[in-house]
Amino acid sequence: MILTVGFIVNPIAGMGGRVGLKGTDNVVEEAKRKGAKPVSPFKAREAIKEYVEKYNDDIRWVTCSGIMGENILRENGIKSVEVIYNVTSRDTSAKDTKNACKLFVEYPVDLIVFCGGDGTARDITSIVGTRIPILGIPSGVKMHSGVFAINPRIAARVIHEFANHKLTVGDVEIMDLDEEKYRQGEWNIKLFGIAKGIVEPIYVQVGKMSFESIPEDDIKDELAEYIEDEMKDNPEYVYFFGSGSTIDYIARKLGLSNTLLGIDAVYRGKTIAQDLDEKGILDILDRYPKAKLILSPIGAQGFILGRGNLQISPKVIRKIGIDNIIVVATPSKLAATPLIRIDTGDKEIDKLFAMKEQMLVIIGYRLMRVVKIQTNNI
Amino acid sequence: MREMTEFLGREYEEMEKQGLTWVIKSLNGPSQPHVEVEGKKCIMLASNNYLNLANHPKLREAAIKAIEKYGAGAGSDWSIAGTMDIHMELYKKIAEFKGTEDAVTFQTGFAANAGLIPQLAGKGDLLISDELNHGSIIDGVRLSKAERAVYPHSDMGALEKVLEEANKKDYRRVIILTDGVFSMDGDIAKMDEIHKLAEEYRAMIYVDDAHGEGVLGDGHGIGRHFDLEKEIHFQIGTFSKAFGSFGGMLAGSSDLIKFAYNKSRTWLLSAAFPPHVAAANIAALEVVEKEKDRVKRLWDNTKYFKKEIESLGYDTGNSQTPIVPTIVGDSKKAKQLAEKLYEEGIFALAIVYPMVARDKARIRNQMNADFNREDLDTILNVYEKLGKELKIV
Ligand SMILES: Cc1ncc(COP(=O)(O)O)c(C=O)c1O
């Protein structure tokens, strides 16, 4: 079966960076006035050129007219291009991305390859959800989401390997910085939602030299089983479930109602509070002094603290105690980021983690792995 | 609808698409330095027969004599009526050879790991395993109800981290499990450091020395190599590699062996290996002890080959033993090289992703005590030619 790829370029992504605007959302005009030059067409071109020169599998490309995709495919000599969305204005916007994605879903394409940053990933996810896997050619100012290839050339290789069944589809988080706040000097990366990204398959050894890939959900089931045992063995503890796709899966598997983006509290197998803010967590800690916190790396860089979960403040972490943090991760997540990153905004706490150097991460049923810790403040 | 056997073909096809299937090439005669593979004469670079004992006259003779005396089969499980005096003789011989109180054999090394590990640790215990340990250790560990922690390959800092964390919980027992020699890279476990950490944190040590026996410590294995024969609590091995024969073994204290007799399911519920296998195994240990020169020749060949292949520009990674990989980059290149080597009459194995990292695909070259200089130079010349042709060096 020939792979159908929906290709979309956000021509203005990445423009804000060079002129110090930290993103291009809502400030395109200002960026242009300051002399910002388009970045993403170059990145997209680099990826497609590499793809055509090195791999050029039999792929059907479906795209948007002109600068939003068509031009770059055609100038690299790709014949099988179908334009399904016409860009009407010279100034493209998020609306164009979203409308094109609606058509990609209808078509339907097997994979969406886009060139842009976190904002573009967010726009695409808001339409396609987890229905179609997404691959980002990095070009934005911020790329915290788990859908991006490391660079345009690697993006080309990922398309090729996906087309040839060497890579598979798995859950990744879409992250976004609150740009308004950021331009005012406040750093708040939020978890926007879950998308399907392209991930390394999880292999288990069958023979000495033969392997079989197993579904990511099997591993998540094991993690859930482990957490279930853990809670049963420690009935006096309240468990805070962190955010992100892995923990959301675990919670649902255990029959708990859970908020994907938020922090929930579970006591004796029942959810006792949902979507807690810092104060909510502290209140619960007053009532239940023994607590554990279950976290999983969120987004592209392997952060467990400091991205997408600012509710877990330094004060909260101190109260719970860093030895009561349980980190779970699937092997595909660890393949993407073999480090656990921490940036709590509190030098002392970061230092406690830094001194640990490595931590045990739960990667299966009763199965742990030593993983290096990286903190930002040291 | 519930599915029937269609899944067999479907799953095979999926694996084939991903390039993960395995093609068997059969030998037309004995395994030795020069072999015939599917009708083609080759130099053998892919066998574990390091000391060239697989077709050694002493082993053959011993096996034939045993067949004449005991017949072809043992007739039963070891535990019931399958243990013959020749098996008992072998146990004694192994214990002597390994410098331990006692020993016992298993059908294979795999069976030893799969049958013993789950009995050594259960709920409330911790098994700590190197990430590159052999699949049979991994399976043994999986069968146990203990918690399991994996550390990055030979990373002693990480191992200590696990032991430190383990001290915060009250595990009943903690066991560190490792290969003696790692079969993809040919590096040696840091047994001295593992031993120190084990002492400091009160953990036990379990070593599978499949690729170290016949190779390290004058052929006696990793225990002798590090002078830790009595300190390693559980010593697993196999006769299927340097010893040129077949069958797994366990050496250690007499308590351990009595425990294994009564608890290991693979030992209790499966037949004893045939008497002639026991006879060949005894002969193998005798040959290693008597023909001291054999181990020395293996190392001489290893040193020569390693030095020369490196001077051609090949990367041999962390090799410290007769397993000398040539790391060539991506999987496609390694497969290509293996095919070309075969065309040139060299039988070698490509080790590719996901067995090793994507950019660390390699040929695993395994040395033999009975390669002569001419063999090694033939191999090196072919490597030189192909390295240039494939732009590896
Ligand atoms: C470390 C290790 N253990 C066990 C085995 C299996 O030994 P056997 O062939 O006796 O089952 C091997 C061989 O592949 C090995 O390398």
Topology, please?
The complex is a heterodimer of chains A (about 375) and B (about 400).
Chain A: E1 3-9, H1 15-18, H2 28-33, H3 40-54, E2 59-64, H4 70-75, E3 81-85, H5 94-106, E4 111-116, H6 118-128, E5 134-138, H7 152-163, E6 168-177, H8 179-183, E7 189-199, E8 202-205, E9 211-214, H9 216-233, E10 238-241, H10 245-253, E11 264-267, E12 270-273, H11 278-287, E13 291-295, E14 303-305, H12 314-320, E15 325-328, H13 331-336, E16 339-342, H14 347-356, E17 358-364, E18 367-375
Parallel strand pairs in A: 1-2, 1-4, 2-3, 4-5, 10-13, 13-15, 14-16, 15-17, 16-18
Antiparallel strand pairs in A: 6-7, 8-9, 10-11, 11-12, 17-18
Helix pairs in contact in A: 3-7, 5-6, 9-10, 11-12
Chain B: H1 6-17, E1 34-37, E2 40-44, H2 57-70, H3 78-82, H4 85-98, E3 102-106, H5 109-120, E4 126-130, H6 135-143, E5 147-151, H7 156-168, E6 174-179, H8 191-201, E7 204-208, H9 222-225, E8 234-238, E9 248-252, H10 254-263, H11 265-268, H12 275-290, H13 292-311, E10 323-329, H14 331-343, E11 346-347, E12 349-351, E13 361-366, H15 373-389
Parallel strand pairs in B: 2-11, 4-5, 4-6, 6-7, 7-8
Antiparallel strand pairs in B: 1-2, 3-9, 8-9, 10-13, 12-13
Helix pairs in contact in B: 2-12, 4-12, 5-6, 7-8, 13-15
